[in-house]
Prior knowledge:
The chain is an alpha+beta fold. It contains 15 helices and 25 strands. It has helices at 53-73, 116-128, 140-151, 160-170, 172-179, 188-196, 209-212, 227-233, 269-276, 336-344, 354-359, 399-425, 442-452, 464-477, 507-524, and strands at residues 9-15, 19-25, 31-38, 50-51, 81-88, 94-97, 107-108, 131-133, 136-138, 183-186, 206-208, 218-219, 224-225, 242-244, 247-252, 262-268, 285-289, 293-300, 311-317, 324-332, 369-371, 389-391, 431-435, 455-459, 498-501. The chain has a 7-stranded mixed beta sheet. Helix 2 packs across helix 3 (140-151) and helix 9 (269-276) packs across helix 14 (464-477). The chain is globular, with a radius of gyration of 22 Å. The termini are far apart.
Amino acid sequence: MSALKEGEFVGSLDCGTTSTRFIIFDNRANIIAQSQEEFPQYYPEPGWHEHDVNELQETCDRVIEQAVAKLEEAGYTRNSVKVIGVTNQRETTVVWSRTTGKPLSRAIVWDDSRTRGNVLHFENLLETQGIEIDGKVRRGKDGALAIKELTGLPLSTYFSAIKLRWMIDHREDVREAHEEDDLAFGTVESWIAYNLLGGVNGGQHISEVTNASRTLLLNIRTLKWDPALLRFFGFRESVLPRLVSTSEVYGNIASGPLKGVPLGGLVGDQQGALIGNKCLAPGQAKCTYGTGAFLLFCTGTDIVYSNHGLLSTVAYQAGPQSKPVYALEGAIAVAGSAIKWLRDSMGLIESAGQINTLAGSVPSSSGVYFVTAFSGLLAPYWDSNATGLLIGLTSYTTPAHVARATLEANAFQTRAVIDSMVLDAHSDLAHLKVDGGMTNGDLAMEVLADVGGFEVVRPEMRESTALGSALLAGSAIGLFGWDISRPETLMEVNTARSTRFNPRTTEKQRAEAWHGWQRAVDRSRGWFETTAE
């Protein structure tokens, strides 16, 4: 066996909602080695979704080990990995003991909707008591606007503060840790970084700003935890992690095959995909189709507040002293998970890839609409009491029509977000860059273009989320000359050709289909009757 040679590569640990992968890239975003592993999902009650974060961390450790083994099989030493980044599912809420380093509860996942009552409670609190900011009490709709001005976000089951409040109120171990000042709170990157950097033996309790901007606790102008929000939700400041930028060296990996390698980039998965698609300038947008779908539109160093149901969020901060870059975001809770539902719960398909074949066997959905509001509707509707709905069914309807309606649901929701984005940004979208597992099917992309009326651009290398954290990590140490604040240094990255999908429908056809979708959404809304907690 020939001696292993040392190269220069960057690793990315991508901690998604259903699986974790570790990918090793070269300077042009070619994949040198990778490993992926799914981890268990827990649904203890309707609308609930949990993760065991010990299992999550174990999959992280295994995929790193497996990818490094494949790197060595390819002829390179493990020392070839010069730095790694982490990208992660956002909003998912993790709590652990600062004393023991052990989790105090399963994590509540971003799409969990158990906290409807908590949202109603805080909406009522705004009406009765309001929120005090800089000595002024703001109540009712003005109070909700104040929270949006601070965080860019509405009150919703989606965000971490609401989930943390539920944990403290309903989990005795969490409540006691909070009362005894032993509680550590974080999103997934906080937990992963804590463990990679040593855990209870020297690990750091940190949170990166794109993830922190999804908690309802961060002032997105100052990039600091806001005391008014802490008072409003009733949290000790000591539970919060130290805030860090998106691209800097946070420390070195404490153990395993990459022991001593710097951890140099942390980023929420959707911001990671924005960076991986190199949408770094104002007006550039991408949509990632995974478990859910997330469309981000870069607005530069200006915060653009939405009047049409979108979120204002931090896109990235290129270093500790850099100005933050912002984005408008439209979040769709259910995209690929609807296909998983057809496979696992309904048995209409045997594999996710079969949906394109089944849906392609009919020319249209024949009036069937599928509002995939399994945990309510996110942008631009923001109705946590909406329900999933199949409507337009007749004796003519077949599984193929339902499959096609599932693909169309994804496209209609994307169009709803883009229509809002155009109104807020006062700018038309020339084309939409896409990535994520759902984009592998040509039919899904053709349906997206036909429903939306815009060009869809799908890159050849679609691991954009992982690539984003790799670019941030490389930039943190100047690897390959990358500098995330200077996009021209990334010109040679991921330059493979793209596939383009253009609309085949007429404007009249799109308008008629859109009208039907809006009617279906109206019928799905307000189904659940929620009481305040």
